[in-house]
């Protein structure tokens, strides 16, 4: 197992509610959820840094919306 | 930097004896060099042999188990080195790379019983050409693919994904994933490849 480091994360009650709800929905601990979120954030950031655009597509209308990430 | 996950027995079909195989987490330069210097010449020799008989269609490449010969392992390793979502594995035996895998930890399941739950998505999985029965008369090691698939399941468990994995299969490997590994076939999707998923229960059955 890779070495792990610990951090304290300060969240608003609303943010914590969202973390807890998503963790419950996905069957993950809060730590695992935050690690997933970090992977996704990094992946999108790398693509945007490379000049790519990231879209989400509606499954039936095929309408696309560009995903914006504030840097 | 790579680390050893474990040492596992592999059967050498040429001698009938078991040898020790080392599973590495994260591909090292030597694994890529083995692909370039040892695997690729075998693929190219077969492709050259086939092309002398006529055009090498995807179907013909599948019959000879060389559909993955164009995979760019060196470029992938370079591009994905810093990406947190990527995990890579290599199997070594007798000092040579016998299998390679890239997996992504950012995908969501599609199979109805686990829809939208996180999964480990296997992006690339390959065994060395001398271990493939359609590519050589006397394939050497058996069990490389199974070991790498078990590594993906283990990664899924350690990431709290309960063993769930998914992958798009090359036509040459569809039967193996469906009939041998017991994965659920979710049909050909927009990638024009057949997509398979393994549920928690299927993962438990696979590794037991």
Map the helices and strands.
The complex is a heterodimer of chains A (71) and B (208).
Chain A (H helix, E strand, L loop, with lengths): L12 H14 L3 H20 L5 E3 L6 E3 L5
Antiparallel strand pairs in A: 1-2
Helix pairs in contact in A: 1-2
Chain B lengths: L2 E10 L5 E8 L3 H23 L6 H6 L9 H8 L5 E8 L2 E13 L9 E10 L13 E2 L1 H15 L6 E5 L4 H7 L3 E5 L5 E5 L1 H8 L1
Parallel strand pairs in B: 5-7
Antiparallel strand pairs in B: 1-2, 1-6, 2-3, 3-4, 4-5, 7-9, 8-9
CATH homologous superfamily label of chain B: Gcn5-related N-acetyltransferase (GNAT)
- Helix-strand string of chain A: HHEE
Q: Do you know the CATH topology of chain B?
A: Aminopeptidase
Molecular shape of chain A: extended
The first-to-last residue Cα distance of chain A is: 32 Å
Q: Helix/strand-derived class of chain B?
A: alpha+beta
Main sheet record of chain A: 2 strands, antiparallel
Level of helix content of chain A?
40-55%
Q: In percent terms, what proportion of residues of chain B is strand?
A: 25-35%
- Helix fraction of chain B, binned, reads 25-40%
- Weakly predicted, low-confidence segments of chain B: none
Question: What low-confidence regions of chain A span 5 or more consecutive residues with pLDDT below 50?
Answer: none
Mean pLDDT across the residues of chain A is: 89
Q: Biggest interface and its residues per chain?
A: A-B, 16 and 14 residues
The whole-angstrom Rg of chain A is 15 Å
Strand order of the largest sheet of chain A: 1-2
CATH architecture of chain B: 3-Layer(aba) Sandwich
Average pLDDT of chain B, rounded to a whole number, is: 93
Q: What portion of the residues of chain A fall into strands of 2 or more residues?
A: 5-15%
